[in-house]
């Protein structure tokens, strides 16, 4: 039997060090704290979406005119993934997590003080770019997990991520309605700084596993994807899935709050609709178990079927609230199941998990950002039906592009 790899040796935490019978308090906090930190940082990416009506009112414009702020956040996150996530293989993760958390917190404070959409967009861009802490840490979570429970450990982090998405919509809408959108940004800044520093404290001490320049991981991205057809399929399919979800979810506040063809809800009431997203947090552990048992491909196929059913339900939901509620549950279940399966595949299909994970998440968020950018104009020109058309097109592209297997 061969000896453990260097990556395995360096990512073992204090809980499995020789001579220790019981895990330390730091190692016991490792996975729960990473999950909570993931929830807080993920919320930052979607912070503006439920607040768009309030931001538009503050700046004297229509909500559809500031919908592009949601895309700025996603493009910023994709850029941060390109430059920061691969650093997990070449720099001290504890220091990286602490610095990124403080930068994101500072940018959110600047956003809270913004006097116009330009300044706010710049702050959101920087905050989102620095909000890549979960993707810096998820390769470490996968490396420390037992092989037969790896997907379930990854699913715990993903459950935290989607809990954060729900919190951004629900709590953001409620607090924004009561105290203003700027208070929401300040509160997010405080939580980001506190949770980020706490997470950095519990991380195990590591030695970098890759030598070379800090940008060597970024330079290696194309070759890593090219050498792994499984990784390429995971990237494209998640881009299609995430794009469909993003087009619908980031535009939902417009449908719920606008009068006329919309439902005319308050921002707080529309935010409560995000509670349907809790389906994602419930599905994540189940999806992890299914991936460990049946493999990623079957789970992704089932997730796409669920998402395909949700799109016509969303279209019908433009007029029927019950259909909108059912569609929200289905699309979240589909997204999280697909994400657990595809991300587990991305983390295990190559010898460079941090770089592969970066490629995977960048592809997903780039697909989501582009779909969100198209959803705003689609809503302005064709209403909610236009948004649903964008979502359906993204699902079709994501599946059709990868339907033919290559040897």
Mind explaining what this structure looks like?
With 407 residues, the chain is mainly α. It starts with 5 loop residues before the first helix and ends in a 7-residue tail after the last helix. The protein is built from 18 helices and no strands. The chain has helices at 6-11, 25-28, 30-45, 52-59, 68-84, 93-112, 117-130, 133-144, 150-179, 181-202, 216-227, 229-257, 267-272, 278-294, 296-317, 321-348, 353-382, 384-400. Helix 3 (30-45) packs antiparallel against helix 8 (133-144), helix 3 (30-45) packs across helix 9 (150-179) and helix 17 runs antiparallel to helix 18 (384-400). Helices cover 76% and strands 0% of the residues.
Map the helices and strands.
Layout: H1 6-11, H2 25-28, H3 30-45, H4 52-59, H5 68-84, H6 93-112, H7 117-130, H8 133-144, H9 150-179, H10 181-202, H11 216-227, H12 229-257, H13 267-272, H14 278-294, H15 296-317, H16 321-348, H17 353-382, H18 384-400
Helix pairs in contact: 3-8, 3-9, 3-10, 5-7, 5-17, 6-7, 6-10, 8-9, 8-17, 9-10, 9-14, 9-16, 11-17, 12-15, 12-16, 12-17, 12-18, 14-15, 14-16, 15-16, 15-18, 16-17, 17-18
Structure summary:
Helix content is 76%, strand content 0%. It has 407 residues and is mostly helical. The chain is globular, with a radius of gyration of 20 Å.
Descriptive labels:
407 residues, mainly alpha, 76% helix, disordered N terminus
Give start-end ranges of low-pLDDT stretches: 1-21
> What level of helicity do the residues show?
over 70%
Radius of gyration in whole Å, from Cα? 20 Å
Largest sheet properties:
none
Mean pLDDT: 81
Strand tally is 0
Helix/strand structural class: mainly alpha
The arrangement of helices and strands along the chain is HHHHHHHHHHHHHHHHHH
Multimeric organization: single chain
Q: What is the global morphology?
A: globular
Work out the strand percent.
under 5%
Distance between the termini: 30 Å
Q: Total helix count?
A: 18
